Amino acid sequence: MLTLYFSPGACSMASHIGIEECGTAYTEHPVLLSKGEQKTADYMKVNPRGKVPALAVDGRIITENTGILTYLARRFPETKLLPADPVDEANCIATMAWFSNIVHPSYQRYMRAERFAEGDAAVASVKDMGKKTFWTNLEEIDGMLAGKQWVMGDQFTVADGYCLVFYGWGLRADLPMSTLAHYTAFKDRMLKRPKVMKVLQDEQSVLLK
Ligand SMILES: N[C@@H](CCC(=O)N[C@@H](CS)C(=O)NCC(=O)O)C(=O)O
């Protein structure tokens, strides 16, 4: 029995797309960040860090998109959501780690600057630098996708849903996403996948506007 805890529009969309692409039965458990539900006593029992996503597997919890997506791909090997070659597999996981450790925090400094500095001037500076760094990371993703169908080349993997999250966040930050030609073509390919579309509709994603 699988239960996915997620919040619409959050980074948990990566795991949401991953689990849909596995084609397995699962229970959706929304945890609305806009209502602070990630800090309720009930959810803190699921993930004491108060973050989404979390995946319950027969009552055992996995957190972090990279952990959840690696687990799903290995549990459902027939879906081929991780490369078979060990070096390619490691690079796919490394790309997800980069998304989690570098790309996500750059957006977080823009969106939640008050968590990283004190005083109006310092907060404004962190916010400004966060937006610039996030854009630099989006440009790097655009370069990564040049000449490729998917993040790992011809094979669709669990890294692709994760990659899509930041395109939506770029739109939210009013960044000129359409100037990133490779990333935009990738986003359009993602929108043609019925399971991705189901998740975007479910989450009422900014990517559909
Ligand atoms: N590295 C983590 C990041 C998890 C994370 O920061 N999730 C955000 C949503 S994008 C969250 O739950 N924030 C709630 C909060 O900080 O209160 C992952 O990839 O799962």
Architecture overview:
- The chain contains eight helices and four strands, in the order E-H-E-H-E-E-H-H-H-H-H-H.
- The protein has 209 residues and is of the alpha+beta class.
- The protein folds into two domains: 2-79, Glutaredoxin, CATH 3.40.30.10; 86-193, Glutathione S-transferase Yfyf (Class Pi), Chain A, domain 2, CATH 1.20.1050.10.
- Helix 1 (13-22) runs antiparallel to helix 6 (158-172) and helix 6 packs across helix 7 (181-191).
- It is globular.
- The site of glutathione has 12 residues, from helix 4.
Describe this structure in a few short sentences.
The protein is of the alpha+beta class and 209 residues long.
Roughly how much helix do the residues carry, as a percent range? 40-55%
Number of helices: 8
Mean pLDDT: 98
Net shape: globular
User: Radius of gyration, Cα only, in angstroms?
Assistant: 17 Å
Strand order of the largest sheet: 2-1-3-4
Gross CATH architecture of the largest domain: Up-down Bundle
- Low-confidence segments, given as residue ranges, are none
CATH topology of the largest domain: Glutathione S-transferase Yfyf (Class Pi), Chain A, domain 2
Structural class: alpha+beta
End-to-end separation in angstroms reads: 34 Å
Identify the quaternary structure here: single chain
| Bound heterogens, unique | glutathione
CATH class bucket of the largest domain:
Mainly Alpha
Strand content: 5-15%
Find the count of extended strands (DSSP E, 2+ residues).
4
Largest sheet: 4 strands, mixed
Element string (H = helix, E = strand): EHEHEEHHHHHH
